[in-house]
Amino acid sequence: MSGLRAQKKADKNRRILEAATTLFRKVGYDSARIEDIADMAGVSVGTFYNYYKNKGDMLMATVSMEVEEVLAAGDQVIGRELDDVGKALSELISKYYDHSLTYLSKEMWRTAMSLSIGQPETPFSKRYTALDHRLSKQVCDLFRSLQTRGIVRKDVDCDATGELVFNNVNMMFIEFVKDEDMDIDGLKAEVTRQNAPVAALMSDVL
Amino acid sequence: MSGLRAQKKADKNRRILEAATTLFRKVGYDSARIEDIADMAGVSVGTFYNYYKNKGDMLMATVSMEVEEVLAAGDQVIGRELDDVGKALSELISKYYDHSLTYLSKEMWRTAMSLSIGQPETPFSKRYTALDHRLSKQVCDLFRSLQTRGIVRKDVDCDATGELVFNNVNMMFIEFVKDEDMDIDGLKAEVTRQNAPVAALMSDVL
DNA sequence: AAAAAATATTGAACGTGTTCATTTTTTGAG
DNA sequence: CTCAAAAAATGAACACGTTCAATATTTTTT
């Protein structure tokens, strides 16, 4: 039987991922020790390291799942064909932010972002960066869609503006996770205010 | 003599800071061990921890010095009273980016940012965040200055737009330090492209 | 100037992420 | 079925940031 090894492997992979996410959620990233994760998954510490490059990679796996779902939610917003730049943008960004704390705590986000910046060569870090780019692309797509439908001025560079707006969304999210006192509504309000002038200017028909 | 203790303290503080920045530059943040820093400064490991909360705090002290200088350079640009939004913005951002690698390597920046996100309650992290806000304020100031002089449309919210633009500048800098292959000219070109539509729209006299 | 109090220094010990030589398990050829 | 080679699992050992009880130094009090 040739699949025994592969099957065990997949099983352990799943058990480790499950144990890790459970512990991260329960006691926080820092307090979840590799030994505990390995114990809960029923493997040794060494085996953990056969499956994941390091502790950070483990967290990144969770983050990736989260962002994939956010991307899917974003696609729905673009499909809705709204007819106001500010409104459409707010809807899209709301989806991003609302979903953000479904699986991850602020602490987990902080750690993930921290790792992604601190160790950019890690495989999962690269995946995280790639996901960010897809989110950025989504904002660009929204603008282009609005432009095609005559809601955004023809002379606006949708990609440039989309990247600019998304980078602000992202940076504000970083501020959000850094500040335990800030809530999602406060975050949305700030970003909406920041977007307002650009949204208005983009809408002006020359 | 009452100043003996204070004098020794100041001296050790300086020696530790010097040793740390020297080692960070020479062998990188991760490879510079506390023991090495302490040795070079002529103190024990325990003493290091009496002076600095932890290794990250040490790095943040260096970063703070750097950003203070960038802020000073930025003020000069605002004083020059340029008469084109895109140009003025490019000048300001150039100052930021050009100065950025004077004292710090990309690795040091990554570590600093990583720490500032991962441990936001640390004193130096807070100081770092405060410096960021001052930079953001500086972009807002530039826009307001241009608006007063009739170069930016009267109906534009300079603070909102300034924050948006700065957050993009900041986010792009993060991408820059994450990517060892990217150079400052490439970074500037990207940001200029991203800013172009907003700069153009802001300039339109309605 | 001696003693007491306050403050600073020290380095061995600790905790936890990570590595790696050894052992165990699985595989497929003969 | 046997066995040698490949793959995977293991946990003790290691590295390094951090802590803290013991010691030393400086300041204040008497």
Written account of the structure:
Two copies of one chain form a homodimer. With 206 residues, chain A is mainly α. Chain A has helices spanning 4-27, 34-41, 45-51, 55-79, 85-100, 106-118, 123-148, 158-178, 184-203. The longest helix of chain A has 26 residues, at 123-148. Chain A starts with a helix and ends with a helix. The mean pLDDT of chain A is 92. The interface between A and B is large, with 36 and 36 residues. The structure holds a DNA duplex (30 and 30 nucleotides).
Chart the SSEs and their pairings.
The structure is a homodimer of 206-residue chains.
Chain A: H1 4-27, H2 34-41, H3 45-51, H4 55-79, H5 85-100, H6 106-118, H7 123-148, H8 158-178, H9 184-203
The structure holds a DNA duplex (30 and 30 nucleotides).
Give the helices and strands of chain A as they follow along the chain: HHHHHHHHH
Mean pLDDT of chain A: 92
Alpha plus pi helix count of chain A = 9
Quaternary structure state of the chains depicted: homodimer
Helix fraction of chain A, binned, reads over 70%
Unreliable stretches of chain A (pLDDT < 50, length at least 5) are: none
Which structural class matches the secondary elements of chain A?
mainly alpha
Q: Give the N-to-C terminal Cα separation of chain A.
A: 71 Å
